[in-house]
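Priority: low. Protein: carbonic anhydrase. Input follows.
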Amino acid sequence: MDIKQIFENNKKWIAKQLQTDETYFDKLGAGQAPEILYIGCSDSRVTAEEVMGLQPGEVFVHRNIANMVPNTDLNSMSVINYAVSHLKVNHIVVCGHYGCGGVLAAMQQSDLGILNPWLRNIRDVYRIHQQELDAITNEAEKYKRLVELNVQEQCINVIKTAEVQKANTERNLKVYGWIFDIHSGELIDLNIDFDEILKDITKIYKIS
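Result:
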């Protein structure tokens, strides 16, 4: 890759945007008011706005390895706090994807150095759902199911936060779990029952 080409691409992109809307950058510079917080994977094949057909300014994005929301990760917690309490988003999406390298690495019993503490969070997901996962004999299907269960558990971690619980009460904020199928380009809604999970979660994790 020629890094200099990126700057040429940038100039072409600017020209294209201005040709479509000459006030594009004036509006972009005026501030952001996104409705959605998207928490996704850092995988280079998965982009947030492009997958959802949205434009800059319409979605607040946080990405990391395997779309994790560890409760002790100040990065994730700060993003949620800012998006919910200051930007006032009304929807939070945790989006995983099939073929996730982080989830695959967590399934393998090997020492991955600095990645170990991060992947331990995914291995915890496996431990919680071990009975279901061990019953799946096809490794590819087990892998896909762990990707889905990881999204579900990260949604639960989002729901545990005080900001989300408060925003749900005040303005009916919702949390969604999605999967991006990199083989078809399709977004799959896992149809996680937010209200039922919230009811169960708040018995233990209710903040206010």
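The radius of gyration is 19 Å. The longest helix spans residues 139-159.
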